[in-house]
Amino acid sequence: MPSPNFGERKADTRVEILLLHYTGMKDALTACRWMCDERSEVSSHYLVDEHGVVTRLVPEEKRAWHAGVSYWAGASDINSRSIGIEIHNPGHERGYPDFPDIQMRAVIDLCSAIVARHPIPPEGVLAHSDVAPERKIDPGEKFPWERLHRAGIGHWVPPAPITEGAILQADDAGEEVADLQQALSEYGYGIEVTGQYDLRTTLIVTAFQRHFRPERVDGLADASTIDTVHRLLAARRTHGP
Predict the structure, then answer these.
(1) What number of other Cβ atoms are within 10 A of residue 149's Cβ?
(2) End-to-end distance of the chain based on CA atoms, in angstroms?
(3) Section 110-139 average pLDDT
(4) Is the pLDDT of residue 173 over 90?
(5) How far is CA 18 from CA 4, 123, 190, 220, 226, in A?
(6) Contact 114/83 with Cβ under 8 angstroms?
(7) Contact 200/180 with Cβ under 8 angstroms?
(8) pLDDT digits (tens, 9 = 90+) for 89-98
(9) Whole-number Å distance between alpha carbons of 89 and 95
(10) Averaged over 122-130, what is the pLDDT?
(11) Maximum distance among all alpha carbons in the chain?
């Protein structure tokens, strides 16, 4: 079902990100029609409905309009560097149901085929909320990232257990905050190392938790969150990009 909403990728870029979204609409057909309407000015390369049916909207060699204003690892034109998959789920505003097994099997098959065709590293398989934490929360904390990782897709480590103890939170400042910001920036998040636990830091910590520590998503940097960031960085250094 071809969408008119695409352009050419920039000549000096290559596909190195696989960006996963949820539709946030009442049904997949409505989402599909919206992304195929030139008035919407949005699209993705693929849509996966709740029954596991995959619809291609934009050819992979073209630049679909799915990421919006976004940033990852020094790059701001994420659309030129990525392939986008919209996974139908009505989203947080409409009850946010679990992603059905049949849908996830189709997502895994599609992702496996895409990463086989493009030089996308495991840490390049990202959530929309990772690259646009101030605007987006999808595909959300119910999305089974660990299941994708078991299928050979994406970067994952077991989250550190949640324990009681000190946390970093809004209005905190100092070396510990700067160290956390540095670690998140090294992983790829668009965060400045200021030493101030500001709103941007809260939003990025929240986005990180949705993806990598979904048991508790609150924007507070507890020991579990901080440890999980460093576990991911250590795993990436061990296995390479």
Answers:
(1) 15
(2) 35
(3) 98
(4) yes
(5) 21, 9, 17, 27, 25
(6) yes
(7) no
(8) 999 999 999 9
(9) 9
(10) 98
(11) 52
Q: What angle (nearest 5°) sits at the alpha carbon of residue 157, between those of residues 115 and 150?
A: 45
Token pair 């989402």: residue: 31
Q: Do 128 and 21 form a contact (C-beta atoms < 8 A)?
A: yes
pLDDT of residue 177: 98
pLDDT over 60 (residue 241): no
Q: CA-CA-CA-CA torsion for 90, 92, 95, 98, nearest 10 degrees? A: 70
Active site residue 60: no
How confident is the model at residue 240, as a pLDDT?
58
Question: One of 16, 38, 50, 86 is an active-site residue; which one?
Answer: 86
Contact 98, 213 (CB under 8 A): no
Q: Cα–Cα–Cα angle for 130, 77, 49, nearest 5°?
A: 55
**3-state secondary structure string across the chain:** CCCCCEEECCCCCCCCEEEEEECCCCCHHHHHHHHCCCCCCCCCCEEECCCCCEEECCCCCEEECCCCCCCECCECCHHHHEEEEEECCCCHHHCCCCCCHHHHHHHHHHHHHHHHHCCCCHHHEEEHHHHCCCCCCCCCCCCCHHHHHHCCCCCCCCCCCCCCCCCECCCCECHHHHHHHHHHHHHCCCCCCCCECCHHHHHHHHHHHHHHCCCCCCCCECHHHHHHHHHHHHHHHHHCC
> What is the side-by-side strand order in the sheet with 82-87?
54-56, 46-48, 82-87, 17-22, 125-127
208, 184 contact by CB (below 8 A) = yes
